[in-house]
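Q: For a teaching handout, I want to show students what a protein-ligand complex looks like in token form. Below are the inputs, and the small molecule is adenosine-3',5'-cyclic-monophosphate. Please produce the holo structure.
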Amino acid sequence: MTRDAGSSDLLRRVPLFQEMTPALLGELARRLRPVRFRAGHAIFHAGDEGSMLYIVIEGAVKIFIPSTDGREVLLAILRTGDVFGEMSLLDDEPRSASATTLDDTEMVSLRRNDFQEVLNRYPDACRAIVSVLVRRLRQTNQSIQDAYILDVPGRLARRLLVLADEHGIPADAGIEIDLRVSQQDLASMIGASRVAVNKQLQAWRQQGIVEVRRQRVTILDPIALEKAFTVAE
Ligand code: CMP
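A: Here is the structure, written as tokens, with adenosine-3',5'-cyclic-monophosphate included.
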């Protein structure tokens, strides 16, 4: 790693740390260790014992639950500033999901004891972790509601808009989702088959609602996508 991954300056650029006091940032900077993995690296597997939490500095990590038939439930794609691996450190249970890098990824890691000590000493750190967990719970509640209420087009439309909100960059014709997501990834996110996702994306392409090129999706008409789930709700 070319720069000091534990420096306060670098941490300050991570959204999670922006509100933290200099004292807490200094404390974290001393305890965090830089880690770098190539794309496709399995950081840990569901069921492993957890010993560290990670914060993404640059790159992308997918969080998923594998199943015995080779399919997976894709829970989240994490980017700069996102934290993962905290759950098993908080409840001493095994890893609740697997984590694999999607791109070459730089992270910092914090050991279990250091994490617990920082939480004990700094209420700001507790608040930051609680807000991460609450945000995730809200997203999970939304996904459960979608699974009960929406059909495949509705779930796919909602997920594409969430991805655009979290990872969107302005493009000539619309909003490009700044991630490589395969049709299988999208299917794993919404609990549908790849064939059903493919069919829906083709239909939206023909209607000029989305564009898909080399696993990158651009949303051309967000209003039309919104209609796919507001009409169904
Ligand atoms: P842990 O259980 O230690 O290891 C797997 C990690 O995946 C978990 O901690 C969380 O950091 C993360 N994780 C689990 N469920 C979700 C979810 N629904 N959304 C985003 N991240 C999650």
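A: Two things your students might notice: The CA atoms of residues 12 and 18 lie 5 Å apart. DSSP finds nine helices and twelve strands in the chain.
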